[in-house]
Amino acid sequence: MHTQLNNITIGYSDQGTGLPILFLHAFPLNRTMWATQVNALSSQFRIVTIDLRGHGESDAPLWRYTLEQSADDVRALLDYLAIRQALFVGLSMGGYILFAFYRKYTARVKGLILADTKAQADTEEGKNGRFQLAQIAYKKGPSAIADVMIPKLLSPVTIQTRRNLVQEVQAMIESNQISGIAGDLMAMADRPDSVPLLSRITHPTQIIVGELDQATPPTDARLMADHIPHASLAVIPQAAHLSNLEQPEAFNQIVSAFALNLEK
Ligand code: MLT
Prior knowledge:
Elements: E1 2-5, E2 8-15, E3 20-24, H1 35-41, E4 46-50, H2 67-80, E5 86-91, H3 93-105, E6 109-115, H4 124-140, H5 142-153, H6 156-161, H7 163-174, H8 178-189, H9 195-198, E7 205-210, H10 218-227, E8 231-236, H11 243-246, H12 248-263
Parallel strand pairs: 3-4, 3-5, 5-6, 6-7, 7-8
Antiparallel strand pairs: 1-2, 2-4
Helix pairs in contact: 1-12, 2-3, 4-5, 4-8, 5-7
This protein binds D-malate (MLT).
């Protein structure tokens, strides 16, 4: 499904009834990375997924991208769907956007799940890395981005043994437009340090991390768990950065238990 929000087309899906749970995807993927979660959880909850601007069925405007703008798009989608409050699940870049959303629209949040993400801003080295990646996208196209990103997103065992999953991730990355890839990279490079925000997060929070995540390792997850007052941490074995795709049953079980508790 798609609609016009904030002057662009935004793709989304909305399935099930009950507590709304809104999923925010990683870079450089799209909302279909949540297909297993939609299938497993929409019998119990209202599951909403969004293609963040620059991805999937949403427009990838040739213009400035910020994480605050993505947070505004999420808020516009909530308004469009008449959802007052939701549980938000943000994985990696989705988590960065969730911090931006929490800063601006705290009243719309019922709870947070921060998966394979981190609160710290980019280091100078990290920002340079983003520029290099944008250059690769510009010179060689999205398939070269897939070659760089897949070893960072999935564990070595998954890459060796689960060809279908690797191909799905590759297809998601290759479907991106350069404008969306470069826009996200600039937005992430510009994001503020969210560590000072952590102690002010008063909502129930679940943190999830794959034990093999190298992009946002368990030490980053522990930092969030240590600073957010009502947070618990779950480490998923045999998963790297895309823990929802590598170990969907474990991921879904954590989301479902947290959401049921929130409904009480
Ligand atoms: C992601 O998975 O969204 C990215 O790895 C986040 C990042 O590059 O910081």
